[in-house]
Target: ABC transporter permease
Amino acid sequence: MSLTDALPTVKLNQRAWHPNVVLLSLGLVMLAVIWLLNPVSVAPNRIVPGTSYGMLDAIGLPGALLISLLISAMSGLALFPSRTNYRAMLTLVMIVLLLMPFGLMVASQWLVDPALPQSRLSIGAATWSLLFILLLCLVELRIRLGLTRLSTTLLLSCVGVVWGICATFWLQSLALVQEFQVREQQFWRATLQHLRLVSTAVGVSVVVGLLLAIMMRRYAKLQRVSFALLNFLQTIPSLALFGLLLAPLAWLAANVPLLAKLGVSGIGTTPALIALIAYSLLPMVRNTYIALEEVSVDTLEAAKAMGMRSSQRFWHVRFPLALPVVLEGVRITTVQAVGLTAVAALIGAGGLGTFIFQGLGQAAMDMVLLGALPILLLALIVDAGLGALAKALRPGG
Model:
């Protein structure tokens, strides 16, 4: 066999090799992050700035080599992508995520002076960056392996349980844990306020959005006016909308005794709910309207031929077929409301945003995280739960 005969085979083999550039790049970035940035910092109290420590000081040479080996193995598997290797990479990602709180425990034992009861361990840039990049890897692996949102949420829930157990029993010196312990009752009260605001706003927007979408299908002028108004409301920044509501609601409370008795005022829950409902209506109305319009005409004609009345065709045929897309609107609306409710704390509506703005005012980033992390967790749970429900209700789901 001549050399020229072998060349096409070599080219063919070269073309067949396609490494996963995304996971390979993320693996290399993780290696750079853990060695170039500091994973933790230690402060003698809440006021004094902390001292940052590198990975070798925090978890020692064995721990540093173990983490580097796991990440290097993941990067190596990315060079030869296959379903088996993707599963192995998912296992490595989960192992690193589960090992991270134990690394913080080691750093706490080595770096925090037990003679200083007010000393605290704060999570550094390397740890946050590593956690963020690992979640990006998990997103890529979810797509490659075809994992459902529900299964991904269960995996993250297992990680969250391990982190929660470690924080409860062995990470008492962690600054975030100390902030929670000092404000535990306030935290749960703010969480309930946050959930109450979100559920009320979403519930009202679902009912109003469904009724408005049904009416828009009958009246074309109402459709144009409604979408124009709802699109305009989306362009107003949330803080500006809260400010615009303050004066008229305060005037109504001062001049209409009944509204004042009902608790209407320029600040507090009332303007927060009005603003949240206003922002929630557009995705709800748009998804509901499109879902109802896209139901097959042939299906409706078949239902009519079977003797179904107009109301029966709507509730027994059109609406059930449109329900998965309607639920997508509910998912988008709820996730958006979970985030926007944090801003409502600025006008005295309460919620988890209270910790965010108090922490920013006091330059206490751990207090900011005490409010931001539960909001992120709530958004992920809502997105995964409603997304899985919508997928299950689709034909063949």
